[in-house]
Design brief:
279 residues; alpha/beta; five-stranded mixed beta sheet; elongated; D-Maltodextrin-Binding Protein, domain 2; six-stranded mixed beta sheet
Length: 279
């Protein structure tokens, strides 16, 4: 009877302890799901992000798989609802995911050596416009209607949307540049790299936004601090001087050089710009 009592005690201890050990083991091998804004068709996005998820799987020693969203709204909601564990998002998308789902910032992208970008208001060279106020009553070209930051940057420069005689959303930055150059619109907004390219082709920069944090990697609210730290290390350790890492970085975007550390406070500048549109 004594032996049976001892054996029962041992068995009970194993039963009580085993689930905890199994849970810990399962937890470290649980698949992480990686989402993204829809910047290309799914097949192209898979091609761009698959090398990154393979790298993360090896670095974290756990599977990381893609779960892409059809549009920006869906991508944000996936993070908010914790249906994905991390995502490649725009700065405004991160702020929405943070506000609605306690999402956490992991790292920001670095483009051609810069970990920030600016939006530029451009006009045609030789035009009479010298200040933002001169654009009142004029026509203006925006890109994607869903790109809230473009409108926020224009309003933040000192002119309201209703001050234009008309404005249109015409898609890609190339469309904007050509439309302003051809005289279809009297002004438009471009990303800094595109504005610089068109300076020698007949456009002039009239005004620019403050430096803004760029695309980023966001973790959903269910990511624990230990995993968050490992994710940050994984992204910050991507080295463009390592040929294997460079392939991963350039697959995401040919203009990227890697990732840099960031913080939620760095996105306050965007919070201020988009505030008038959040009423």
């Amino acid at each position: 009877m004594k032996i049976n009592t001892v054996l029962i005690g041992i068995l009970l201890s194993i039963i009580l302890i085993s689930p905890l050990n199994t849970l810990a083991s399962t937890d470290t091998s649980t698949e992480l799901l990686f989402g993204s804004v829809a910047m290309d068709i799914p097949a192209v996005m898979h091609k761009r992000l698959k090398p990154l998820t393979r790298y993360l799987s090896n670095k974290l020693n756990r599977p990381v798989s893609l779960r892409l969203s059809p549009n920006m709204g869906a991508a944000i909601q996936e993070v908010v609802d914790k249906n994905v564990d991390l995502a490649y998002l725009t700065p405004v998308a991160y702020l929405k995911a943070h506000a609605e789902g306690n999402a956490k910032i992991v790292a920001k992208t670095v483009t051609k050596g810069k970990a920030s970008f600016q939006l530029m208001i451009v006009v045609k060279k030789g035009s009479p416009y010298k200040t933002i106020a001169d654009l009142k009553g004029k026509t203006f070209a925006f890109g994607d209607k869903r790109a809230l930051l473009q409108r926020a940057a224009v309003v933040g420069s000192g002119i309201n949307m209703e001050d234009f005689s008309s404005y249109q959303f015409i898609g890609h930055y190339d469309n904007i540049a050509r439309a302003v150059l051809n005289g279809d619109f009297e002004a438009g907004i471009l990303k800094d790299t595109m504005a610089f390219q068109w300076q020698d082709k007949g456009l002039r920069i009239l005004a620019e936004s403050p430096p803004l944090p760029p695309y980023n990697i966001t973790a959903s609210g269910n990511i624990d601090n230990e995993t968050l730290a490992k994710l940050k290390d994984a992204f910050l350790n991507l080295d463009r001087n390592n040929p294997e890492h460079l392939v991963i970085i350039k697959a995401i975007d040919k203009k990227y050089d890697g990732f840099a550390a960031t913080s939620d406070a760095e996105y306050d500048v965007i919070r201020r710009l988009i505030k008038p549109f959040n009423k």
